[in-house]
Structures are given as C-alpha cells and as structure tokens.
Amino acid sequence: MEENRAIILSESQRTISKLQLLSAFFEDEIIYKIFLRTQVIHKLFENNTDLNVNKLELFHVQYSLTIIELLRKIKSANERNVLILHDEIQLNRDLIDKLNSNVFTEQSYNLEKQRQALKVNQSLRRLFQLLSEEKDESPFSKNINAFSARFAADFFFDIPFDLVEKLTDYNPAEVYRNAYATIHRKLMGILNKVEFKSEFYCGLTAGSLILEVYHMIGVDRYFVFVPSRNLFLFLDLADLSGIDLHNNISKKAKIIQEIADKNDQLQSTASVVKTQIPPDIKKLISDYHNKIDDVNFLQNLTDVDIEANILKAMLNTDSL
Prior knowledge:
Elements: H1 2-26, H2 29-47, H3 53-102, H4 106-133, H5 146-155, E1 157-158, H6 161-168, E2 175-177, E3 182-184, H7 185-193, E4 198-206, E5 209-216, E6 221-226, E7 231-235, H8 251-275, H9 279-293, H10 304-315
Parallel strand pairs: 1-4, 3-7
Antiparallel strand pairs: 2-3, 4-5, 5-6, 6-7
C-alpha cells in the first residue's frame, strides 16, 4: 500500500514538473496559477495519509494530463509557425547578402559623379571649339556613357515618359547642331561664360531612357544631357518638383533596408507567435483554472471522472 502511494506521489511530481516547464515556456499568468494550484492539490495528498491517493492519480489523469496535452499541442503548433517565420527570415538574409555583393556604394557613386562631370565639361568645351571652327569631329570623352550604364539602375530617379518628352523638346531654330551633338545656343553661351564648369546634379530614367542633369557652377541654371541622343538642353528645375532629389540611397540599398526592416518585424512576430494562445483556448484554460481553484473542488473529487470528461470534450485538442 505504501509502495503504491509512493509511486503515485512520484508520478504526480513528474506531472507537476511538466506543468512547471510549460508555464515557464508560455510565461502566462493563468498557466502559472494552474501549476501552483496543482502543487497545492499534490501537497494536500502528500501531507494527509488519510486521503485516498488514488483520487490524486485520477485527478492528474483526467485533469492535469488533459491540460498538459493541450498546452503541448499549442506549443508544437506555435513552434511550427515560428519555424516558418525563421525560414523566411533566413531567405531574406540570403537575399540581402546577394544584393550586398552587387550593390554600388554611395561613396563610389559620389566619386564617379565628379569624374563624369569632368568628362561632360571637357566634352562641352571640345564641342564649343569644334562648332566655332566648323570641324566635323566627335567632341565626347572616352566612355562618357559608362557612368549612367553603371549607376542608373541603382541611383537614378524614375520619371514618366511624358516628362521625358517635355524635358527633351526643343525648337530647332534655338540649337547648334553637328553630326555628333545638339545643344541650345544660349546654353552654350552661358557654359562658355562659366568656363564650362558644371557639376552632376542627378540622374533620371524612364524605362531604358537615361537623362543626366547638371548644375552650372556660378549661376543658378541647369541643363540636361541625354546620352542616347547626344543632346544638351536647358532644364527648369521646377519641372522636377514632384521628385525627391535629396535621396541618394541606391535602389538596391533601399530594397536591402526594406528587407532588413521586414526581418525585424518577422523576428518580433516570431517572439509573439512562440508563446501565443488563441483567445478561445485561453478562455478554456481560464475556466479550467477556475474549476480546480474552486474551494469545493477538492470535496468533489469523487466526481472527478465525470467533470473531467466534460472538460476534455470542451478542450477538443484535435482542432490544433
């Protein structure tokens, strides 16, 4: 008889340990209270040899093991969902690594802007000389199109085609033209006055079309260079008022930042999902705690099998 009592008490303690682990995992107040209340019931039988210890075993079989099974199913379902989130996080990390290996840095972009402006200025100076001397030669510096080919996809700003048409429209009577280039007459005059000093301002794209915008140093005037047409025209900066020209972060860098932000959100979600309990299940667990916490519960342990079967049907763990 004593041996049977010792076995039941030992098994009861193992059941309580399982509840303790689950309460620590979920960090939920109600589950912790269930763990404490189950300890109280265990201690009651442990300290009172007059009580029928078989009722403690029956209590665990019908009540404790039911709630443990439910919590374990919730834990497993949550862990599966967390694993899916972690898989997505890892895929995003792999994508970030891939993008980082191909992204041009803002530092390299700023350096190449200066080199490109120098090439354009030299080309314009040479164009002025050729037009003045009426020579039929190309004025353009070597690899003048390499800059936009390298950086347009990441750093240039997208604009609609109708804006491209507006920026590149001109009156033929107002331009100089030879076999290699077309330029506004007045633009050439101003460039000559400022000694062909300009700086790269921004790049624009519309599909495969590329435009480079330059600011003439010393005057508040701008011009656009269209590499595919070797075209130089005045540009009114107001025409670009709808574009945020202060953002020099590359498009890939923006994507990387967006993916990193998404990963932060996924990580936060994973932390919540790991221990979340559906509201309907939370209510059942709360009802369960209220039942075993009732002062009359211990007095009615003789009906534990009937009451517990009702509880087990309510929990319906197969739905998890």
